[in-house]
Amino acid sequence: MVNRKELDPDKSPGARFGLLLRRLRDERGLTQDELGELMGCSGTHISAVETNRRPPTQRFAKSADRALATGDRLERESRAVRYTALLEGFPEYVTYEARAAEIRLYEVGVIPGILQTPQYASALNARAVERGAITPEQGEERVSLVSQRQAAIIRTPPPLVFVMLDESCLRRPVGDEGTMDDQLAALIRFAALPNTVLQVAPFDMGDRRPLSLPLYILTMQNRSLVSYAESAHRGQIERQSDSVVPLLTAYHQLQAESPSQAAAVAMIEQLRKGTP
Question: Which of 1, 42, 142, 270 is most buried by its number of CB atoms within 10 A?
């Protein structure tokens, strides 16, 4: 085709979305103008998104999914474009998390997003904005994603959610005293749910701890496994069972070494009372 711009999906999430949109459109034998007519926009707009000159909004992606009969594929792919403040791989992980039958989390230093109160999430990201680590817009993206993740796991039937927190998650102050007290109270309410387990890996576990970095493991409806692990600068999705199973084994070992949920709740209640 004359003057057709080549797209590199590895260049950016926007380029990857554009290439997917073009491929799906080509498979259905539609021109840009024809797809635009189905979506209620111009062919020029379609061209701008396909060539990564304009980012896909959530509304655009949902409209494209309807026009191309692709379920929610493009809407899910568009999240990686919008959530620019997140580590590589995490937007993709979130799409799996929303459909998982079982969710297992291990977090260090911060309450995981699916358990954060709005005040805690806002305070956490406000400090990142103050440090210049992210822009105010990116801070809003992060807070918005927290609420979306929490809404996505409140479904019928609900997923089983297993949460392991390093003790540092509870002892690191975020926001004012009221923010932390509300967050600790939210953890106690979470532990009381019928589909959840909450444990804390205490500092005195020492070198018996089999994990040291945050780790998220999902069991999907078809029993396949997906893991997401991250360092300070990048995250990585893993879908191969032979790679995920050793991580799942380490997670179970951490659970076995850690005190019970009742002990975790008792620790949180003590912290709320201001006792060590």
Answer: 142
* Number of Cβ atoms within 10 Å of the Cβ of 269: 13
The answer to whether residue 204 scores a pLDDT higher than 70 is yes
Say whether 193 sits in a helix, a strand or coil: coil
Q: Give the Cα separation of 55 and 16 in Å (integer).
A: 11
Handedness of CA 238, 135, 146, 180 (dihedral sign): positive
Domain membership of residue 129 (yes or no) is no
Pairing assessment for the beta strands 102-107 and 215-219 based on DSSP bridges: antiparallel
Sheet holding 225-230, edge to edge: 196-201, 160-166, 102-107, 215-219, 225-230, 235-238
Q: Look at residue 67 and tell me if it is in a domain.
A: yes
Same domain, 161 and 262: yes
Same domain, 94 and 217: yes
| In contact, 93 and 217? CB cutoff 8 Å | no
**Please, what is the Cα angle at 214 between 163 and 193, to 5 degrees?**
10
pTM over 0.85: no
- 144-185, pLDDT tens digit by residue? 888 888 887 888 889 999 999 999 999 999 999 999 999 999
Amino acid identity, position 71 = G
Q: Which domain holds residue 107?
A: 90-114+150-273
Q: What is the CATH number of the domain that holds 71?
A: 1.10.260.40
Per-residue pLDDT reduced to its tens digit, 25-43: 999 999 999 999 999 999 9
Contact 251, 269 (CB under 8 A): no
Please tell me the least confidently modeled range out of 12-26, 113-127, 130-144, 149-163.
130-144
Can you give 251-273 as a three-state secondary structure string? Answer: HHHHHHHCCCHHHHHHHHHHHHH
DSSP, residue by residue, 199-243: EEE-GGGGGG-S--S-EEEEE-TTS-EEEEEE-SS-EEEE--HHH
